[in-house]
Amino acid sequence: MWRALQITWRIATWILVIAIVVYVLSAISDHNTGLVVGVLGLLYATIRGFVMSLATAMVQIACGIDQHFYELKRLWDPEAKPPDTEAVMGRYWVDLVIGSIFNGLVYLICLLYVFSKL
Q1: CA distances from 104 to 15, 37, 109, 113, 115 (A)
Q2: In angstroms, rounded to a whole number, what is the distance separating the alpha carbons of residues 74 and 68?
Q3: pTM of the predicted model, to two decimals?
Q4: Under a CB-based contact definition with an 8 Å cutoff, are residues 17 and 102 in contact?
Q5: What gap in Å lies between CA 50 and CA 100, rounded to an integer?
Q6: What is the distance between the alpha carbons of residues 113 and 12, in angstroms, rounded to a whole number?
Q7: CB count, 10 Å around CB of 16?
Q8: Which domain does 106 fall in, by range?
Q9: Dist CA 14 CA 52 (whole Å)
Q10: Does the pLDDT value for residue 39 go beyond 90?
């Protein structure tokens, strides 16, 4: 239940971001200002994409460290449960796919806007 609510919330916030980007780009009437704002939108989407790939590496590192801690814990307690890294990675991949799709849409909107102003 909570996971479905979390995914719905994430999609709703990305739809709001896209609506704001479209509104701001459509409200600009000056040619030069439109180019600058469009390029800033491209920079935003590029940096956000870089942060998503960096977060992927960090989650994978955290899961690897969790697995190493499990190996150490197993030396003291042979009946220790292994960490559920598959569930963590599964939740993360769903969030990453949602973020990547909507970030790509923001990038395409800004890119089309910049090319339409050239």
Answers
A1: 12, 17, 9, 14, 16
A2: 10
A3: 0.84
A4: yes
A5: 11
A6: 23
A7: 10
A8: 2-117
A9: 14
A10: yes
- What is the longest distance spanned by two Cα atoms in the chain? 69
Span 64-97, pLDDT tens digits: 999 999 999 898 988 888 888 888 898 999 999 9
Q: Identify the pLDDT of residue 1.
A: 84
Q: What is the pLDDT of residue 61?
A: 95
Count CB neighbours of 38 within 10 A. 24
Q: What is the pLDDT of residue 88?
A: 87
The number of residues making up the chain comes to: 118
The count of structural domains within the chain is: 1
- Determine the Cα–Cα distance for residues 46 and 52; give it in Å rounded to an integer: 10
Encoding tokens for residue 83? 């960490």
Beta-carbon contacts of 36 under 8 Å, excluding residues fewer than 6 positions away, are none
Whether residue 99 contacts residue 14, with contact meaning beta carbons closer than 8 Å, is answered with yes
* pLDDT at 48 > cutoff 90: yes
Residues 12 and 18: their CA atoms lie apart, in Å, by 10
Report the percent of the chain where pLDDT is more than 90: 77
